[in-house]
Amino acid sequence: MNINKKAQTFFEDNAVQWSLRGYNYIDHNYPVALHRRRILLKIIKSNKIKKLKFLDIGCGSGDNLIEIAKLGHSIVGVDSSKKMLNLAKSKIDKLSNKISKNIILVHKPILEYKDEHLFDICICMGVIGYIDNEINFLKHINKLLKKNGNLIISSRNRLFNIQSLSFRTLNEINNKKFKKLYDEMKSYYKPLKNQSINLFLKNITKLNFTKIKNKNTNKNKIILKKNYLPFTEPKQQTPLEMIKLSKRSNFKVSKFYGVHPHIIDPSLNKMLPEKVFNQMSDALTAFEEEKISLVWSSVFISVLKKSK
């Protein structure tokens, strides 16, 4: 049960760029980590218990654990990247003692981490795709949780391969998996809640393309490096595959959330002026708790409850 070594090297060498891309709308970039955090906090705030013990597995630059600590919870952040943890520490050092005292950082391979105390909630954003044995990984997390504890975990959405019209689509066709994915995708076309529909319509009315230009003239804006390239394809799961993985690792899925929705062909993103595609994607966040979001989102979050 190991993390892909290329992934470890990549995150160590690209810590700053990853953090910038994950949490900022820059150029045509969509900040997936920002929206994962937004949904994560929405889930946590729905829990009425004021003081919980959290474990952030693969905490990266610390953005999630800081916001959780601000809510009054205690949290341990574990990561194998020293540079990522240095970024996290630089942010934590700016916090008040009232907040920072709730945070502990641990530099250690996440699969080797153990604690004598169990946690109420574990969070794991953007990690499972780089694990060679997902079931053993989930079982390891299960042992770190209290009875009836929860794991909030994000995955790359394999169903989106059908929508993306990319090399991934072709791979699914060549591997004869397209029909299976299509059948699962169609099962998520369910009636929508009026609340979601009304929010979507409200979001649509806020779209503003009148002042958008092809080039951002702000000389002080953050620049994304052009040579930031994927090192490897992370593993993907479909929601149904996540249900099966969870069952085999003593969890039960209680809810899904779609992350990074696409209202039009993703290849159009950089063919359009900056912010056009992302504004349309943000409008679809109204449906992120609906099953349909699992059709057009490139990432999804699963809330798993410990069953044993």
Describe the fold and architecture.
Residues 216-220 have low confidence and may be disordered. Helix 2 crosses helix 3 (32-45) and helix 3 (32-45) runs parallel beside helix 4. Strands 1, 2, 3, 4, 5, 6, 7 and 8 form an 8-stranded mixed sheet that branches. The longest helix has 14 residues, at 32-45. With 308 residues, this protein is α/β, with parallel strands linked by helices. It has helices at residues 5-13, 15-23, 32-45, 63-70, 82-92, 97-100, 134-143, 160-164, 167-174, 178-186, 194-205, 239-248, 276-283, 293-296; strands at 53-57, 74-79, 103-107, 119-124, 145-157, 236-237, 251-261, 297-306. The protein contains 14 helices and 8 strands. The chain has one domain (5-306): Rossmann fold (3-Layer(aba) Sandwich), CATH 3.40.50. Helix 4 (63-70) links the parallel strand 1 and strand 2.
